[in-house]
Amino acid sequence: MDLLAAVVEDRLTIGPTWPLLLWIAYTLLVLPAAAVVVGLKGRWIWLLVGLFTFGLAVVAAAFLAAEPDSAWARRAQRRQARRTAPG
């Protein structure tokens, strides 16, 4: 009986579990990067929706095409112009 109690007590004091560490990494690394990409693409509504979906909409919106007049699209146009420029 004492062995079982010691095992249960030890499992309760191990510390952060992998799901918690993954959630922290998602919150600190993935969400800010996705939010910057979505902001550069001009998808402001998706940023607001992401507030209510714990960032899932922001990550999904990062994979959408950019708005034609966004900073992301202008950057892509400049890059394309440099590639096709003679010389």
Give a written overview of the molecule.
- Helix content is 72%, strand content 0%.
- It is mainly alpha-helical and 87 residues long.
- The protein has one domain.
- The relative contact order is 0.11.
What does the radius of gyration come to?
22 Å
Q: How many individual helices?
A: 5
Helix content: over 70%
Described by strand count, sense and barrel closure, the largest sheet is:
none
Number of folding domains?
Answer: 1
Helix and strand succession?
HHHHH
In terms of quaternary structure, what is this? single chain
Bulk shape? elongated
Uncertain parts: none
Mean pLDDT: 84
* Percentage of residues in DSSP E strands: under 5%
Give the N-to-C terminal Cα separation: 81 Å
**Number of beta-strand segments:** 0
Question: Brief overview, please?
Answer:
The protein is mainly alpha-helical.
Topology:
Blueprint: H1 2-12, H2 18-40, H3 44-52, H4 56-61, H5 71-84
